[in-house]
Each structure stands twice: as C-alpha cells, then as structure tokens.
Amino acid sequence: MDNQKKTSSTPQVMRNVFGVIMIIVYIGMGVLLMLNYFDFTGSWAWLRWVGGVLFIVYGFWRAYRQFKGIDPDITTRY
After folding, report:
1. Does residue 67 lie within any of the structural domains?
2. Which domain holds residue 23?
3. Distance of CA 64 to the CA centre of its chain
C-alpha cells in the first residue's frame, strides 16, 4: 500500500516542481523585459512594456492557481 502511494504521488510532485519553475520563469522574464535586459530600442520599445506586464501578470495568475490547487489534474479527466 505504501508503494502505491509513493508511485502515485511522484507525478504530482513533478507537476508541482514544474509549476513552480514555470512561475519563476514567467515572472523573471517579465522583470527582465521591464528592465530592458534584451535591449529593445526604436519602434519595438513598446513591446517590452506590454510583454513584461503580460508575463508578470500571467506568472502571478499561474502562482495563484498553483497554490490554490485550481489547476485540474490531467489524469482524472480521461
């Protein structure tokens, strides 16, 4: 019984780890865009502001869903 519990919880742990890594990537990418790390100049400067805000907002939305447990479990849907 303990073996079944450990094997069934491993995919959930990996999903949680992947979710946290992606939250860090989205928020980090948004911050880097806002700080002009990629050196956007000229007529494309607006893209870093829009992209930065969108990445940060989506990162916080994904964090909210991750920590509240709103994301559906893929294995139970099929």
Report:
1. yes
2. 18-77
3. 10
In this structure, are residues 71 and 16 in contact, taking their beta carbons and an 8 Å threshold?
A: no
Q: How many domains does the chain have?
A: 1
Length of the chain: 78
The CA distance from 14 to 7, in Å, is 12
70 assigned to some structural domain: yes
Q: Global pTM?
A: 0.76
pLDDT in tens, the chain (78 residues): 555 555 567 788 898 999 999 999 999 999 999 999 998 888 888 888 999 999 999 999 999 999 888 766 554 544
Per the domain annotation, does 2 fall within a domain? no
* Cα angle, residue 72 at apex, residues 1 and 60 outer, rounded to 5°: 120
